[in-house]
Amino acid sequence: MAIIELDNVSKVFPRAHRGATPVSAVEDVTLHVEAGEIAGVIGYSGAGKSTLVRLINALEKTTSGTITVDGTRITGLSERRLQRVRLGIGMIFQQFNLFSSRTVWGNIAYPLQIAGVPKDQHQRRVSELLHFVGLADKAHSYPDQLSGGQKQRVGIARALATSPKVLLADEATSALDPETTQDVLRLLKKVNVELGITTVVITHEMEVVKSIADRVVVMEQGRVVEDGSAFDVFAHPKHPTTKRFVGTLVADVPTGATLEALRANHPGRLVTLAFHDDSLPQSRAFAELASSGVEFELVHGGMEDVQGRSFGNLTLALRGPDDAIDSALGRLRVGLSATEVA
Questions:
Q1: If DSSP codes are grouped into helix, strand and coil, which group holds residue 46?
Q2: Are 61 and 41 in contact (CB under 8 A)?
Q3: Residue 159 and residue 196: Cα distance in Å, rounded?
Q4: Each residue of 77-131: pLDDT tens digit?
Q5: Nearest CA to 10 among 2, 21, 89, 23?
Q6: Maximum distance among all alpha carbons in the chain?
Q7: What pLDDT is attached to residue 337?
Q8: Which fold has domain 2-247?
Q9: 30, 42, 57, 342: which could form a disulfide with 270 (CB 3.0–4.6 Å)?
Q10: CA 197 – CA 36 distance, rounded (Å)
Q11: Are the C-beta atoms of 288 and 322 separated by less than 8 Å?
């Protein structure tokens, strides 16, 4: 069941000044996010992904189309009613957006104050969240006394204060180093698994999507150009933008200077074998080559794991009689994709 529903949603920003052209940030987007899943929305700068998340929490109003969150159509609601809806939508920001004058405890308690939660209930809730994010010993610290990762943990605890059903993370790891990024992503996964909170992660980093997303939505120039399970998008990207993103993590068939370098350094015929969890396994493919009298050397590529499923491209330099190589490749092509690149 979808908890977030965008149907034919567009957002056009008016002209900034006379003579300027209106900016179409989101164009005719239809997107349904299922309850309990982690959806990764990825795109390059200007793709419209941050505008999309601001539409979901009604910080921006749609130009056309409808948005429904947890059964409530938010399109056209008054600001007063939207404030109640936003209590069910947690938000995490790239630059943390913590109050420097408040302690960690005060930052987490702030949404409870805004929501009108009685003060005698604050202590239990804040204490629960501090333990959940691993910052029980930082309750009385101020933001400038924390590391970037700790600040983002406070941001996550604050976003969870009012027990939202939806969590929106807008470039939540972009300001963090790789190790801290993985710590924060593990915490977001914990939020999703243990609390059952539907999470939408906005990012330009494919590594973030690979780490935690169940589903990947790719945006380009305000439109959704690809949408599918994380494994399918990584293993079988269709749109050129998606292929560019996937190419940052998964080696493809070598071309250009890479191919020329391989030709210069590795004698033999270069063949790229594409493996996935439904294809012929690597061990059988290598055994087939060996039993055919074909020598092989792995010269390019690698394997990746997404959602517990493996895929990747391995480029081999094959040496042996041409008829033996042709025969072996003919048999291998029955169980996997084999592309001769030289």
A1: coil
A2: no
A3: 14
A4: 998 899 889 989 999 998 899 999 999 999 999 999 999 999 889 999 999 999 9
A5: 23
A6: 81
A7: 83
A8: Rossmann fold (3.40.50)
A9: 342
A10: 6
A11: no
Any long-range contacts for 213-216 (C-beta under 8 Å, 24+ apart)? 213/38, 213/39, 213/40, 214/37, 214/38, 214/39, 214/307, 215/33, 215/34, 215/37, 215/38, 215/39, 215/40, 216/39, 216/40, 216/42
Share the mean pLDDT of the chain: 92
Residue pLDDT, tens place only, 36-57: 999 999 999 999 999 999 999 9
Q: What is the pLDDT of residue 338?
A: 78
For residue 340, name the pLDDT band (cuts at 50, 70, 90): confident
Q: In this model, does residue 67 exceed pLDDT 90?
A: yes
**Would you tell me how many other CB atoms lie within 10 Å of the CB of residue 88?**
16
Give the residue-averaged pLDDT of 297-324. Answer: 90
Mapped onto helix, strand or coil, the DSSP state of residue 127 is helix
- Domain ranges across the chain: 2-247, 256-340
Taking phi first (over 0 means left), then psi (-120 to 50 degrees means alpha), and beta for anything else, what does residue 245 get?
Answer: alpha
Element spanning 261, H or E: helix 256-265
Q: Is 45 exposed, middle or buried (0-12, 13-18, 19+ CB in 10 A)?
A: exposed
Tokens of 263: 């030709």
Neighbouring-strand partners of residue 39: 200, 215
CA–CA separation, 168 and 69 (whole Å):
12
Q: In whole angstroms, what is the distance from residue 192 CA to residue 176 CA?
A: 21
Pairing of strands 64-69, 215-220: unpaired
**How many whole angstroms separate alpha carbon 329 and alpha carbon 197?**
48
Q: Is the pTM of this model over 0.85?
A: yes
One CATH from 3.90.660.10, 3.30.70.260, 3.20.20.70, 3.40.640.10 for 256-340: 3.30.70.260
Residue 188 near residue 169 (C-beta atoms within 8 A): yes
